[in-house]
Amino acid sequence: MVQEYQSPVRVYKHPFELIMAAYVRRFPKCPLIPVFVNSEVVSKNESEDGSTLVTERRCTIDIDAPRLLKRMAGVDYLYFTQRNTLNRRDRTLHIEVHNETFSNRVIVSESCKYTVHPENEDWTCFEQTASLDIKSFFGFESTAEKIAMKQYAASINKGKEIVEYYLRELEEEGITYIPRWTPAVVSGTVVSSAKDGLPSKDPACPTELVSGSPDGHIEYVLVFSLPTVKLDADYIRRYLGDLTPLQESCLIRLRQWLQETHKGKIPKDQHVLRFLRARDFNLDKAREFLCQSLTWRKQHQVDFLLDTWERPQLLQEFYTGGWHHHDRDGRPLYILRLGQMDTKGLVRALGEEALLRQVLSINEEGLRRCEENTRVFGRPISCWTCLVDLEGLNMRHLWRPGVKALLRIIEVVEANYPETLGRLLILRAPRVFPVLWTLVSPLIDENTRKKFLVYAGNDYQGPGGLLDYIDREIIPDFLGGDCMCEIPEGGMVPKSLYRTAEEMESEENRLLSDSIYKSASIFKGAPYEMLIEITEASSVITWDFDVSKGDVIFNIYHSKRAPQPPKKDTLGAHGITSLGAVNAQLIDRSWVPGQDYSMVEKALTCREGESVQGSHITRWPGFYILQWRFHSSPACTASSLPRVDDVLASLQVSSHKCKIMFYTEVLASHDFRGSMTSLESSHSGFSQLSGATTSSSQSHASSISR
């Protein structure tokens, strides 16, 4: 397995020339890096004008590995080749490193670069990438990989420290300024291609460098010639916390993947980091976890919940919970007087849907408050503290439909708001509490359960109690403090407000099904097809879909003939009685391409995780078929028509199945009026968790964007 590393952008607040003077002092060997035994210059080539210097070195490394492993490998030292390209005119240094030792068994590759800060020419940026691929190593591949990653992580931590050490050494010698390189003067003419020695900027390639400003606010600074949005190491420490080099790498690589597949519509770094922590920084697991949540947020428009959902009056009167200042660590504090809440009455009067939306709105507000407290307290705050008062809890709270609603809410929160609960303080737990805990604890993540602190009776008033976590001046009055807490008193919901069973059943699970987006499965040999009838030419068909599993091919066809629904007994001869999972096909196998139907858009291959939006301006009235087809090898795609054998195989092979979530809309020609701005109603409401959005340009006839 290939191990990869990507660093954040590390900023030295010193000019490039001074950093280079410090950098060269680490050769031929550096006492601060014991494993770096020695290095020798193999070759050195300088351009005629002196602007470019290419230096090749052979470096000797003493890996801290068990002696037995070294003896089995037959080596005491490892040798690496380093190639440095210094461009004094553009003020850049590019470093390429690869291994000589065991090059047929192990491939080590590293690339580093020093560049001028895009917004401050007296500062220097550094970033690096590396990869390790151990193909074979005497049966000790896993051990060798762990040793190599441990050594590399240690050297990364030392990197900035070493440069700063030599900067101090230069300062002690009285060297605090080194003039910039200037080209030689030939016949009174200065030979130079860069103004004032600054790197050239390409306005066609803008990206952003996210960094922390001195006043504590996040700056989104335009950077030119960088391929993607990059993170400043100081920004990570200020707004995300102390991460190990490998954890930083996981965050950056996941952000890069999101940028490539979602084209800028990515969640904020704090949110991405929560999903990484929830999966112990396993990149593949965190990516799958996050994508499922982003799909859920988009499907149910959760990002707009705080702005669009109006809490029913019943919740405002009888839901006994609310935000109350912050704890000693600066985390937002939410107080829930569960024992005073008539959960049965709320479920009977409002249904599970309203309670679930209430809890989701609390979590969304918690995310906002964490960001605000991060700015206020000047340190990363990514979770909140919840205080639950159980005084009054009784068997009424164990009413089965109420417990069912609670379990469902816990399941949704665990799946979409990981690592948001910093601490849960459960006070005045009664004797019935263990029964409730037995029911709900299996659904709570183990890491989350470790954050629970339970106090029976008045134990919270003693040592190790509430005062260890909350300042005395904000302890609520109902817990013996002096602070007034603006939380509803609760009480019994009048039975006259209860809904009938029929009313509650009609709204059950609406949050999971009432969505402008629909889901579909695509099987190998059985594409998913959607029919749209157009009565007026120049109408606009718009689409927005996410590929949540597998790869698909998206096509649009036009036909003047109305497709006939397939016969129910098409596969009856094969003894199949139920084909609910197989998609009905609209394009009849007897149809002739170019005669009965035609393709109106070039086929688009969409990869797993991609989000695709686009539109098509219809030229003719008739029937348009949107088709999502399983993407397989070229040998398997000779025909888009399903075969019986393929359908049967698709029912048995789970890998031959794709999933999409889609939304389509048709705009009449008089609404379109020749301007793509009228397509605003079909935009993809992806996420307020997004730090950036993307708008795609539209062509005269159609547009497809990802």
TrEMBL record:
Segments forming domain CRAL-TRIO: 311-487
One term of GO molecular function: RIG-I binding
Annotated PROSITE patterns: CRAL_TRIO, GOLD, PRELI_MSF1
Top-level division of the source organism's lineage: Eukaryota
InterPro entries assigned: CRAL-TRIO_dom, CRAL-TRIO_dom_sf, CRAL/TRIO_N_dom, CRAL/TRIO_N_dom_sf, GOLD_dom, GOLD_dom_sf, PRELI/MSF1_dom, SEC14/CRAL-TRIO_domain
GO biological process: negative regulation of RIG-I signaling pathway
CDD domains associated with the record: SEC14 (cd00170)
Positions of the PRELI/MSF1 domain: 2-175
Domain GOLD: 513-666
Gene Ontology cellular component annotations, sorted alphabetically: cytosol
Coiled-coil regions listed: none
PANTHER family per UniProt: SEC14 RELATED PROTEIN (PTHR23324), SEC14-LIKE PROTEIN 1 (PTHR23324:SF51)
Stated name of the protein: SEC14-like protein 1
